[in-house]
Amino acid sequence: xxxxxxxxxxxxxxxxxxxxxxxxxxxxxxxxxxxxxxxxxxxxxxxxxxxxxxxxxxxxxxxxxxxxxxxxxxxxxxxxxxxxxxxxxxxxxxxxxxxxxxxxxxxxxxxxxxxxxxxxxxxxxxxxxxxxxxxxxxxxxxxxxxxxxxxxxxxxxxxxxxxxxxxxxxxxxxxxxxxxxxxxxxxxxxxxxxxxxxxxxxxxxxxxxxxxxxxxxxxxxxxxxxxxxxxxxxxxxxxxxxxxxxxxxxxxxxxxxxxxxxxxxxxxxxxxxxxxxxxxxxxxxxxxxxxxxxxxxxxxxxxxxxxxxxxxxxxxxxxxxxxxxxxxxxxxxxxxxxxxxxxxxxxxxxxxx
Length: 353
Ligand code: SF4
What we know:
The chain is of the alpha/beta class and 353 residues long. It has one domain: Alpha-Beta Barrel (TIM Barrel). The protein has twelve helices and ten strands. Strands 1, 2, 3, 4, 5, 6, 7, 8, 9 and 10 form a ten-stranded parallel beta sheet that branches. Strand 1, helix 4 (91-103) and strand 2 (108-113) form a beta-alpha-beta unit. The longest helix is centred in the middle third of the chain and has 18 residues, at 120-137. The protein is globular and about 65 Å long. The relative contact order is 0.15. It binds iron/sulfur cluster. The site of iron/sulfur cluster (SF4) has 8 residues, from loops.
């Protein structure tokens, strides 16, 4: 009998898609063993990205005040989540964020704005900002700014935008259960406008929103069809006040299987273990680095994440390297136990005379 793990790895290394039965088996197969599955997904990851992990820092430069109704989002018009709403940050604040990201070793600075999408005027302001950020910090600049057409995409491309993020989030068939104020096709069209104007695309999904395995498979294949070089895989963060909260499906194993599936379907893409990794993968986060090769550090749009030092330690403890930082650039952390110093005091301590 053919080894199903070796078959998946070989197909991915040959850029061959898994068939729907294989894809379903990766997510739901009762006889799937996690370690051989992670090992199989690691093979194409190692071939295309070695052991490097690229670090992205997200700056939410406009929060809330959004006319859209995405059910998983605390910024939507239908969420009652207690978020601090603010209009677009000043250039100074945005540059401060970039400075901190650059100092923290980030290779990419991702700016995100709430809202349906930028007007031409707003695209011009963003373009000016992007050009100056690139000149100042030399980092790759990403933008997530909602639905747009060729006019806005052209302005951003001419300003030097490296990547436009616009997640498909879920499958076409599941989309209207999550969002009704814009369509799945609006998102596909925005990605097409970016590609037509020479901007690299970044588009991913959120799992744990009541979807079926078929929906995760469908969006994975769609991202391959769209030749998406960067795929954030988010694990729903249940936020008080949001209509869409957890559906009970997200176990660390389910999250790891989904990451492996995205790697098998998109072997050459940058797969990001994105929002919700801390709370959904918990102690198994570092295993996610076998299929995935990038992370966000320092938090998400409206929720915190693990700090830089903790995330870097997790990466290096698992034998991976922070991209752009050679092995050993950072001092090995040595013995660490929560709440304890580097030298432990015995618990069964001698009572002082
Ligand atoms: S995901 Fe974006 S478009 Fe949707 S509600 Fe949130 S900020 Fe608005």
